[in-house]
Design brief:
Distance between the termini: 64 Å
Low-confidence stretches: none
Strand content: under 5%
C-alpha cells in the first residue's frame, strides 16, 4: 500500500459531530485498526516517511472524533493510543522536522482534550537536541501565560516539565522537578524509583519513607510501601522491613495487611505475628465493628475457624454476602446442624431482596448446600418439609416458584 492509499483509509476517520454518538463506533474502530496495520507495514518495510504525515493526521482526527463519540468502553481510545505509539516509531525511523514535531506535541498536550497520552521519551530520538530545546522553550512560554486558575493548563505544563527532566537523564533535575508537586504517593514513588535505578539506594529509601509517612490512607501508598520494603530487604535491613509492615497493620489492620506481614516474616525470618495481629484486630473491632470482616478473614487464614465463626455470628451485619457464604460452607463441613438456620435466613433474605434482579436464582442456588447440611445433620426429611413451607410462604411469587421447579429439587 502506498502513502496515497493510506491517506484514503485515514479519510474514513472523519467524524461529523452531528452524528449519533452511540452508533458507528465499531466500524470506526475497525477503520482505525486498518490504518494502524497499514502504517505499521510501511514502517516495517522502510517506508516510514510515507506513514509519518498520514499517521499524524489519523491521530488528530481520532482525537477530535472522541470529543463527539460515545467511547465508554474505551475501544477507540485504545486504538488512538496504539496509533500514537506507532506514530512515535515512524518518527524515530523517518526523522521529521523536529521543530514542527515539538510544536505539535506541546499543542496536543496543552490544548488537547486530554488524550492520547504523550510520552516524550518515545519521541526523544526523533526530536533530537533541537526538538527537545524547542519543547523546553514552548513549555516555558506556556508556563508564563497559563491561567493560574486552570487546573488542566497547570497539569499539562507540569507533566511536560517532568517528562523533559526525565528524558534529560539528569536524575537530580528529575527529582527536583517531581519534588515541586508532592501531593501524592505517586510522586514519591517515581522519585524513589529514579534514585534506585541510579544506584542511590539510601536516598531512594529516605524518599520512600517520607512518602509513606506523608500519605497514610492513600490507595497509592501500598505500592510505595511495597517498594520501600523491597529496598529495605535488599539493603539487609530486615528489622526495618518488618517494622514497615507492622506499622501499617497497626494503623489499618486488614487481611491483606496480615498476608503482607506473613510474607515478609517468611522472607526475613522471625516470630509468627499472628497472635499479635489478631489482638490488634480484636481491639479495633471493639472500637470499630466494621473491622469484624477483616478479623474473620485473618482468623480463617490462621486456621482458627471456631473463633471466626463466633465473631461472624456476633457481627454478621458487617460481613458481605460472599464472605458469609464462605463461612457457612466451612462450618457445614464440621458442624452442619449450626448452618441450617443461617442458610434458611440467607435464602429468605435473598428472595426478598428487591434490588437484585437475579435474587430468585441466587436464592435457589443456595438450596443444595442447605439440603447437604440437613443430610449431614441426619435430618434428610426436614429438607422436603422446608421446601413445602417455602412454596406456601411465597405462593404469590410465581417467578420464584418457576425458578424453584426448574432446579429439580
Amino acid at each position: 500500500m502506498t502513502g496515497d492509499e493510506l491517506t484514503v483509509l485515514v479519510d474514513r476517520l472523519r467524524w461529523d459531530r452531528r452524528r449519533d454518538p452511540y452508533r458507528g463506533r465499531r466500524e470506526y474502530s475497525q477503520a482505525a485498526r486498518q490504518v494502524a496495520e497499514e502504517g505499521a507495514r510501511l514502517v516495517a518495510v522502510g517506508r516510514a516517511e510515507l506513514a509519518v504525515p498520514v499517521l499524524r493526521k489519523a491521530v488528530d482526527r481520532i482525537t477530535r472524533a472522541l470529543m463527539y463519540m460515545d467511547d465508554s468502553s474505551g475501544i477507540v481510545g485504545d486504538d488512538l493510543q496504539e496509533l500514537m505509539d506507532l506514530y512515535a516509531k515512524a518518527c524515530a525511523a523517518a526523522l521529521p522536522n523536529p521543530v514542527s514535531l515539538a510544536g505539535w506535541l506541546v499543542k496536543l498536550e496543552c490544548d488537547g482534550p486530554g488524550w492520547p497520552r504523550i510520552r516524550l521519551a518515545d519521541f526523544a530520538s526523533a526530536l533530537g537536541e533541537r526538538g527537545i530545546a524547542e519543547v523546553e522553550r514552548l513549555v516555558a512560554e506556556r508556563a508564563r501565560v497559563a491561567d493560574p486558575e486552570s487546573w488542566t493548563a497547570a497539569f499539562a505544563v507540569r507533566d511536560l516539565r517532568e517528562q523533559l527532566a526525565e528524558v534529560s537523564g539528569d536524575v537530580d533535575r528529575y527529582v527536583a522537578v517531581l519534588a515541586e508537586h508532592l501531593t501524592s504517593a505517586v510522586q514519591y514513588q517515581r522519585i524513589a524509583e529514579a534514585l534506585r535505578a541510579a544506584g542511590r539506594r539510601d536516598e531512594a529509601i529516605d524518599w520512600a519513607r517520607r512518602g509513606v509517612a506523608a500519605n497514610t490512607g492513600s490507595p497509592y501508598t501500598d505500592r510505595l510501601r511495597n517498594l520501600l520494603v523491597d529496598m529495605l530487604v535488599t539493603a539487609g535491613d530486615k528489622s526495618g522491613a518488618v517494622a514497615a509492615r507492622r506499622e501499617e497493620f497497626a494503623r489499618h489492620p486488614t487481611a491483606a495487611g496480615y498476608r503482607s506481614l506473613i510474607d515478609i516474616m517468611g522472607t526475613v525470618g522471625g516470630d509468627d505475628p499472628t497472635a499479635w495481629a489478631i489482638q490488634v484486630l480484636r481491639d479495633r473491632v471493639d472500637q470499630q465493628p466494621a473491622y469484624a470482616s477483616e478479623l474473620v478473614d485473618v482468623l480463617l487464614a490462621a486456621g482458627r475457624d471456631d473463633e471466626a465463626w463466633q465473631v461472624a455470628l456476633h457481627h454478621q451485619r458487617w460481613l458481605g454476602g460472599p464472605q458469609w457464604q464462605t463461612l457457612l460452607q466451612r462450618r457445614a463441613a464440621t458442624h452442619p446442624e449450626e448452618v441450617i438456620q443461617p442458610y434458611r435466613d440467607l435464602i429468605e433474605k435473598t428472595i426478598l431482596d428487591s434490588a437484585d434482579k437475579r435474587r430468585y436464582r441466587r436464592a435457589v442456588a443456595l438450596l443444595p448446600a442447605l439440603r447437604t447440611a440437613y443430610e449431614a445433620a441426619r435430618e434428610p426429611g426436614a429438607f422436603g418439609r422446608y421446601i413445602a413451607e417455602l412454596r406456601i410462604a411465597h405462593k404469590r411469587r410465581p417467578t420464584f416458584l418457576k425458578t424453584l421447579d426448574a432446579a429439580g429439587l
